[in-house]
Amino acid sequence: MRARVVPALVLTLLANLLVLGAAVPRAYAQVVGGFDFARAEVSVTGLQTPWAMAFLPDGAALVSERNTGRVMRVRPGQAAVQVATVNGVSASGESGLLGLALSPSYAQDGWVYAYFTSTGGDNRLVRFQLTAPQTQTVLLSGVPSATIHDGGRIAFGPDGMLYVATGDAGNTANAQNLGSLGGKILRVTPTGGIPAGNPFASSRVWSYGHRNVQGLAWDEQGRMYATEFGQNTWDEVNQIVAGGNYGWPTCEGTCSGGSFRNPIVTWTTAQASPSGLAYANGTLFAAALRGQRLWAVPLTSGGGAGTPVAEFQSAYGRLRAVAAGPDGWLWVATSNRDGRGVPVAQDDRIIRVPPATGGTDTARPSAPGPSAAGTTPTSASPT
Ligand SMILES: [Ca+2]
Predict the structure, then answer these.
(1) How does pLDDT run across 49-60, given as a tens digit for each residue?
(2) What separation in Å is there between the alpha carbon of 236 and the centre of ligand 1?
(3) Domain segments of the chain: what residues?
């Protein structure tokens, strides 16, 4: 009797699944990580290689432009306004004006932090206030620079310290050299000093063995994550711990038997080449350059990764930055004018994705149009 009932049940279930599958609207399938990708909007256009976004108390975003050295203020549906220029930016290849962050107490102190490749031949960190934007104080200098692998993301952690992602600057030996600031994630005080609690004595180094880190994010439990570009094979998302050695240049991707920390996610460099990273709703969002997509990575309760889901695949071209906005929307910036993309007239753009539960927005009816897919690699290891 059971033997007959079970197949019948299975058939009924299968039939229901087929019907459901046919009835499920496309929009439903595009709700990922709490955001409704079917309702994404192009909110800002006409930027020149935006690299980082940081939100002001009034909801506008400051955006760094890599090649111009400009800091722009943007609001959805409005033209971008230049509010500062970072002094002494040297932009070449992947280098230039990169990371941007606001003080956690911005409303009181007004500090804007920027990380850039300088005409002095290093990568450095400065801060300034928008009321006197040309008065810029160098907080940290001497980070190795090159036309490739400059890292560049900066972000304040939940501990109030500033984290600075660097790259090996094309010299792989920097990554394992604790005396070099290259190939590291650094942790510094809001004035660039060495905070209490760093893992190595008298050092700004928080983690090492990195090739090129351009994305930093923290989950609700304060766990830290970073994206990292692989060389030819494996890109990585790592959970970052104090003093951790993430393997480069000995290990790319996952390696067994060593003392290195393995990534929680790997992708081929064609699938990803991940730059910016954001966290929202139990999910990491990684902006992929060469992969031309936004990866959503669900996190497990233990801080590991579930199965990543790709959104925006080839819809907007190369993606550089992603941030969870104070408006509840997910903000994503393109990088189609960086010399490796195929820009459309509106580029570069910021696309916003509304939260899945509501977020009716009437101000910006702009319809996103897919851009031309494909890139023209200009270096041996393009990202
Ligand atoms: Ca690694």
Answers:
(1) 999 999 999 999
(2) 7
(3) 28-45+281-374
